[in-house]
Write a structure and sequence with these properties.
Oligomer: single chain
Radius of gyration: 24 Å
CATH architecture of the largest domain: Orthogonal Bundle
Number of helices: 6
Number of domains: 2
Number of strands: 3
Helix content: 55-70%
Order of helices and strands: HEHHEEHHH
Shape: elongated
Distance between the termini: 73 Å
CATH topology of the largest domain: Multidrug-efflux Transporter Regulator, Chain: A, Domain 2
Structural class: mainly alpha
């Protein structure tokens, strides 16, 4: 196994354990997980240690789902469809000018 595969990021650890990145950081702070700084910049964890903790069952996976509120749905609709909405308004304005002016 190469060196790059021996160490994994916090995000990969969270995915492997089925928990949030925040929970991984809490486990690191409480010394339940050993983290290593690579080049004094990148926080990495040993894959073998993470797999060992996952297999031991010490960390319970999080299954909390947050509801998708109607206000968020409304905001996302306009955020992701803004181009089409603007295009429709322009087309309707041009049709008004063509047929009624």
């Amino acid at each position: 196994m190469s060196t790059s595969q021996q160490y994994i990021s916090v995000r990969e650890t969270a995915q492997l354990l089925g928990i949030s990145e925040r929970k991984v950081m809490q486990l690191i702070e409480s010394k339940e997980l050993q983290a290593y700084r690579i080049a004094d910049q990148f926080l990495r964890l040993k894959r073998s240690e993470v797999v060992e903790i996952r297999n031991s069952g010490d960390v319970e996976s999080e299954t909390v789902k947050f509801p998708y509120a109607s206000q968020e749905k409304f905001q996302d609709f306009f955020r992701y469809n803004d181009f089409y909405l603007v295009a429709i308004v322009i087309i309707l304005a041009l049709l008004y000018v063509i047929f009624f002016v």
